[in-house]
Write a structure and sequence with these properties.
The structure holds 2 protein chains of 2 kinds. Chain A is built from 10 helices and 2 strands; from the N terminus they run ααααββαααααα. Chain A is an all-alpha fold. Chain A has one domain: Orthogonal Bundle (ABC transporter involved in vitamin B12 uptake, BtuC). Chain A has a two-stranded antiparallel ribbon. In chain A, helix 1 packs parallel to helix 5 and helix 2 runs parallel beside helix 4. The model of chain A has no long low-confidence stretch (mean pLDDT 84). In chain B, helix 4 packs parallel to helix 6. Helices cover 78% and strands 1% of the residues of chain B. The N terminus of chain B is likely disordered. By secondary structure, chain B is mainly alpha-helical. Chain B has a single domain, classed as ABC transporter involved in vitamin B12 uptake, BtuC (Orthogonal Bundle), CATH 1.10.3470. Classes of the chains: A mainly alpha, B mainly alpha. At the A-B interface, helix 3, helix 4, helix 8 and helix 10 of A face helix 6, helix 12 and helix 14 of B. Chain A: InterPro entries: ABC_transp_permease, BCAA_transport_permease. Chain A: It is a multi-pass membrane protein.
Chain lengths: 291, 324
């Protein structure tokens, strides 16, 4: 069934984009750091998973459980060690945006260089649950369904964390009004580090999930970071629902174009969509105009 | 580099200092132009071409991004278009016409893209320009594979290394002269205001979009020309070579290291970085990316205002101590 095919592929791809973009929107919307090395964290997690699965005989789901806290820790450290000096220097003013872009650019090259040195430029993959499952007359690999399920679970978990817990409320307060949050006793820098860390956990989990169903290479982080940025900006910075909608839009647009037009034009479609949204709604689909 | 104000000249009364500076610039330029006759070997010319190429690119980049503070990563989009244009029409048209076509296409693309995107600000613009380079790359790739069915082109034109060197030198003089002229025009003043505060600029009646658009197109034109001039050097061109994103990043690093707000700032950054990369990529080809990243981070953390800002602060401090 063609329709089911497209729906499944679109949801898996779009769900992945949405998940990855949610982490970035936390880092950018709350911690105010435009992290361009984000995609490298994703790819590093994918390679880590590959190593654990093929060399240490771990189950990919076990790796997923390990990669979430590891990603949190690594990103928390990056914020504390590398980003804090910039935050202090700029007083979290407009200079922080450019400074963080440039610093994370450096980090991007550094990490990508290390990955290239360690793994070279080839594509890597491993086989996990690749037997086909029949859904409404459409064949789909079981691993894609597993990935889709975990992506949905992680996304839902994040949503509940942000809306139902004390920590989540504080994080949202920092996102909305960073200057007034201290007035109600919120330690903005501590919360920023935590939000940056949670973003890192999401992207590390995303990398593990990605490695379950797609081949990956050391240089593909940049493309994923760019797509995540496009999703974040399209959805409205700091908005989880926006991430979900924009991520699915992108996933479906890519699936449709790759299926019916030409796989070589997916990036062009992404961009056309991005530009269209920005021209019609400069603050994103769900963003407020004056932020 | 010859154009740098020496400390002695800066200390003099303005008139005499400026005259000495101009004499120094002309002399340095003559020396650079005469280099091929002074027994410079092929290697030296090749290094010179490399430095001049980045000199043109970084200065042209800073022409737009310096005053407006819009960090553009589209450098390689225009550079690649220039190079690709030269590869496509290089053997059928006379060389000046090739350059004119490359210039025209770059400027038109910059105008179209600028109209749509210069309303974006900050991060949006950075991401968009970064994506633009990839987009142009993919589109050219797609067009070559599906329509012309020739991925990769050979370009055989009768242009020597020394001629490339001279063309780049002329281009550098052109960029610097343009930058100098803009700084003294109403447009330059308008851009300074935009860079300081875009809302204020709009309120005092500056047509900010028009000013940004104009400068973006001028900057893109020079970058496209540089691409066309460099094309014969490669002989073989495919989209991956012409649209290599590392070029955008290198240009950004160099301009920031020197200081993007000064006319000669980017040049000051080009020399050390170009020489460093020349040496490093020879001896550590596999570690190039890592080194690029480290240089990038070192600049952001330790030299945020660029070398020019560093020099100026030092001179400022020295001046204060002298007056005590």
């Amino acid at each position: 069934m063609l329709i089911v095919d497209v729906l499944l592929a679109g949801f898996t791809l779009g769900g992945m984009y949405a998940l990855i973009a949610m982490g970035l929107t936390l880092q950018y919307g709350v911690a105010r750091i435009m992290n361009l090395s984000y995609g490298e964290v994703l790819v590093m997690s994918a390679f880590g998973t590959w190593f654990a699965v093929t060399r240490l005989d771990w189950n990919p789901v076990a790796v997923l459980l390990a990669s979430l806290p590891l990603g949190y820790l690594a990103s928390w450290l990056i914020y504390r060690v590398l980003m804090m000096p910039l935050v202090r220097r700029s007083g979290a003013g407009p200079a922080l945006e450019v400074d963080s872009i440039l610093a994370t650019f450096g980090l991007l090259f550094l990490l990508q260089g290390v990955l290239l040195l360690a793994f070279g430029g080839n594509y890597y993959s491993y086989s996990y649950l690749s037997q086909p499952v029949d859904i409404l007359g459409s064949q789909v690999a079981a691993n894609r369904l597993v990935v889709l399920g975990f992506a949905a679970a992680i996304g839902l978990g994040l949503y509940l964390l942000l809306t139902r817990s004390r920590l989540g409320t504080a994080v949202r307060a920092v996102a909305v009004a960073p200057r007034f949050a201290p007035l109600v006793g919120i330690d903005v820098w501590r919360l920023s580090a935590i939000a940056f860390g949670i973003g890192g956990a999401l992207v590390a989990g995303g990398g593990t999930l990605l490695s379950m169903f797609l081949p990956f290479s050391a240089t593909m982080g940049v493309v994923f970071a760019m797509k995540a940025l496009v999703v974040v900006i399209m959805g409205g910075v700091g908005n989880l629902l926006g991430c979900l909608v924009a991520g699915l839009m992108l996933g479906f647009a890519e699936t449709l174009v790759a299926r019916f037009v030409d796989p070589g034009l997916t990036l062009a479609v992404n961009f056309a969509l991005f530009l269209l949204v920005l021209l019609l709604r400069p603050a994103g689909l769900f963003g407020r105009v004056a932020r | 580099m010859n154009a740098l104000p020496s400390p002695a000249a800066a200390g003099n009364p303005a008139g005499a200092g400026r005259l000495a500076l101009q004499a120094l610039m002309v002399a340095g330029l003559a020396l650079l132009a005469a280099l091929p006759w002074l027994g410079a070997d092929d290697y030296l010319i090749a290094v010179g071409i490399n430095i001049l190429q980045y000199g043109v690119l970084a200065t042209a980049w800073a022409l737009f991004s310096g005053p407006t503070r819009y960090v553009s990563l589209a450098t390689v989009a225009f550079f690649g278009i220039g190079a690709y244009t030269a590869a496509v029409v290089g053997e059928t048209l006379p060389w000046p016409a090739v350059l004119a076509v490359a210039l025209g296409i770059s400027v038109v693309l910059a105008l179209v893209v600028g109209l749509a995107t210069l309303r974006l600000s900050g991060v949006h613009f950075v991401i968009f320009t970064f994506g633009l380079a990839e987009l142009v790359h993919q589109l050219v790739n797609w067009y070559e594979v599906n329509v012309t069915r020739t991925l990769g082109r050979y370009l055989f034109v009768d242009i020597t290394q020394v001629q490339i060197y001279w063309q780049l030198l002329a281009l550098l003089v052109g960029v610097l002269a343009t930058g100098w002229a803009i700084r003294r025009s109403r447009l330059g003043l308008a851009l300074q205001v935009i860079g300081d505060d875009e809302v204020v600029a709009r309120h005092v009646g500056i047509d900010t979009t028009r000013a940004k658009l104009l400068l973006f197109a001028i900057s893109a034109g020079f970058i496209g020309l540089a691409g066309a001039v460099m094309a014969p050097r490669w002989t073989y061109i495919d989209p991956a070579i012409a649209f290599n994103p590392v070029i955008s990043f290198q240009v950004l690093i160099m301009a920031l290291l020197g200081g993007a707000n000064r006319l000669f700032g980017p040049l000051l950054g080009v020399l050390p970085v170009a020489i460093l990369f020349e040496l490093l990529s020879g001896s550590f080809p596999n570690h190039f990316m890592i080194l690029l990243g480290l240089v990038f981070m070192a600049i952001v953390y330790f030299i945020p205002n660029g070398l020019f800002g560093l020099l100026q602060r030092r001179r400022h401090r020295a001046g204060k101590e002298g007056s005590k």
